[in-house]
Amino acid sequence: MAVRGLQHWYGKGEMRRQVLQAVDLEIRPGEVVLLTGPSGCGKTTLLTLVGALRQVMEGSVRVFGHELRGSSRAERQQIRRGIGMIFQGHNLLRCLTAEQNVQMGADLLADLGYRARRDRSREWLRAVGLGDHLNKLPHDLSGGQKQRVAIARALATEPRLLLADEPTAALDSRTGREVVELLQGLARNQGCSVLMVTHDPRILDIADRVVRMEDGQLVEAGEGERLWGSDRLPDAGMGPVQ
Amino acid sequence: MSAFWQGRRIPLAWLLLARQPARLAIALAGIAFAGILMFMQLGFRDGLFDASVTIHKLFDADLVLMSPRTMSSIGMAGFPRRRLVQALADPAVKGTTPVHWNLLLWRNPQTRMTRSILTLGFEPNDPLFIDPGLQAKAHALNQKGRVLFDELSRREFGPIAEWLRAGRTVETEVAGKRVRVAGLVTLGPSFGADGNMLTSRETFLRLMPGTPPGSIELGLIRLQPGSDPAVVAQRLRQLLPNDVAVYSKKGFEEFEKNYWRSSTAIGFIFTLGAAMGFVVGCVIVYQILYSDVSDHLPEYATLMAMGYRLVGLLGVVAREGLLLAVLGYVPAWLAGQGFYALIRSGTKLPVAMDPQRALIVFTMILVMCMGSAAMAMRKLADADPAEIF
Questions:
Q1: What is the pLDDT of residues A186-196, one digit of tens each?
Q2: Across the A/B interface, how many CB contacts are shorter than 8 Å?
Q3: What are the boundaries of each domain within chain B?
Q4: What is the CATH number of domain A2-205?
């Protein structure tokens, strides 16, 4: 995945404001990259652009060798099939059991038969430690369990790139840590790149690389925890108002 | 089509419905209610029209002569009987039956109350009805003052059949003259007549002394096998003067139905009732599907973010509509059967679940559900996968 000179605006005319300014970012296959920064600095916008959920306005975003700028709706939808996504909320389908939710992901693998897709869904649920909760509805699962189902669902599509937006936000610190470690381990085994937005300083050590964003620009980049002194925790919600 | 049903996938449409049993129950109750309403209204309408020709259907005739002044079976005008004899001149005509037709006052022998009864007078030796059983019974009419009573007549005419079966001699007054019931026939009440009786021409003229000589109300014409009724009818129209109108048997029935259809508000009232059911059903199904889509909007957006196509998700809503239509139709059909049986026993109207009406109501329900689904789909366009992060 490679981003070159990416710029993005919201609004029109007078109200138009720039949220991304000449962003350059590259993620190698199998690399785990964490993206931090104050709220409203454009992290989520970057994620939606890389995730082919938004049209690229200026600059270049290449995912799996496809240029997303000027891509059609159908092309982006096709590219999204190769991208796993994990959201702040778990966003599971309430009417489906854990197993069926994961299978909604596996069902996107068109070349597999029904039985193979179902077996794969079960394997993934076992891999995230939910082998005993296959037939439970999201309603009956705890927050950490739901987020683990969401991870299984994202990985069941065999993605080459995994995008995660504050997957630990709704979890307590211990569960959050567990979930992220699980995510990192499984992604590594799959050779899947990870781009994760987070405010959580306790999980920075799992990253191969940490990227910090401010006012729509990537300001510094470093290797894991070394970047952060104990006096410089990222402060959620304290970023400059734009 | 395979994209529509997606054979081996998670049955998302079904699960969306089934995991909210309360909402599903409301939706099905609404659809079933609309369906029952349509079945009832259309059933009544068709039943009433069919009931207007209960007697008409029984006649043994290929062509029928009536006075052009006749508007319906409750006001039959007379025409010269000679026209039937003239019709016999056509080589394709095999035989004819002149029939007197009028509504007379029948006195209930038990309560002494009078009520109007349809009376047909004919020569007892002439064929009248398709049912060959009549021939033997008609023999009894050769005696003066004898009548055959329709045992399907409404109860208000008196317990004639019971008394007769019990071996009693049943005598009563018709149009102020004494008659004896010589036997029973099975015809059925029609919209214009609550009861029927048959008698000989001679007795009929005695009951209706004012009838002009040589005047009849209905002429039945039977044709040689293999002749085309439409062609013969055309020939007869040219042959006969214009004081008589020629109908095919089907046309004779249609003429009567048409009277009730066009000269009364029945058709309009019941069609309007069915339309109301349709509208009520549309509102209910739309409400259900719209709130279903709204409630699940983040989930639909998630699926789109995962790489599901919008078309596929529209298919989910469409399948929900189809499932609702089928699941709602079944109880409506069953209840319709029950209500029809109730109407038949209560009113003796010939109302039945005919396949055509069953299909019409199913089509209406399908249109209702799929139309509502299509409207609800517009909400799905609001599902923006970029908004869920």
A1: 888 888 899 99
A2: 76
A3: 2-52+265-387, 68-243
A4: 3.40.50.300
